[in-house]
UniProtKB/TrEMBL annotation:
Entry's Gene Ontology molecular function annotations: zinc ion binding
Species the sequence originates in: Collichthys lucidus
Keyword set, alphabetical order: Cytoplasm, Metal-binding, Nucleus, Repressor, Translation regulation, Zinc, Zinc-finger
Comp. bias regions, Basic and acidic residues: 17-31, 52-62
Subcellular location: Cytoplasm; Nucleus
BP-aspect Gene Ontology terms: regulation of translation
GO cellular component assignments: cytoplasm; nucleus
Superkingdom of origin organism: Eukaryota
Residue span of region Disordered: 1-31, 51-76
InterPro entries: MBS1/2-like (IPR045230), SERF-like_N (IPR007513), ZNF706/At2g23090_sf (IPR026939)
Protein name: Zinc finger protein 706
Residue ranges occupied by any Small EDRK-rich factor-like N-terminal domain in the UniProt entry: 1-37
């Protein structure tokens, strides 16, 4: 076991190493949010996370366009 000054040095070294790893990872929330946007509107190219939201978007923003086949069975 490290004691005293050696322990403090070890903790500082570990903290620095962990900070570098965290910095190298990048923005976790941004990449996760981007990966969750699965459905893309064919008309305006906006992205939605689930089919229910996609259908609501399509019905409100593009009422004159025909409904895409993947939204036929979805309840809004």
């Amino acid at each position: 076991m490290a004691r005293g000054h050696q322990k403090i040095q070890s903790q500082q070294k570990n903290a620095k190493k962990q900070a570098e790893i965290k910095k190298a990872k990048g923005h976790d929330q941004k990449t996760a949010a981007k990966a969750a946007l699965v459905f893309t509107c064919l008309v305006c190219k906006s992205q939605m996370p689930d089919p229910k939201t996609f259908k609501q978007h399509f019905e409100s923003k593009h009422p004159k366009s025909p409904l895409p086949p993947e939204l036929e069975g979805v309840e809004a």
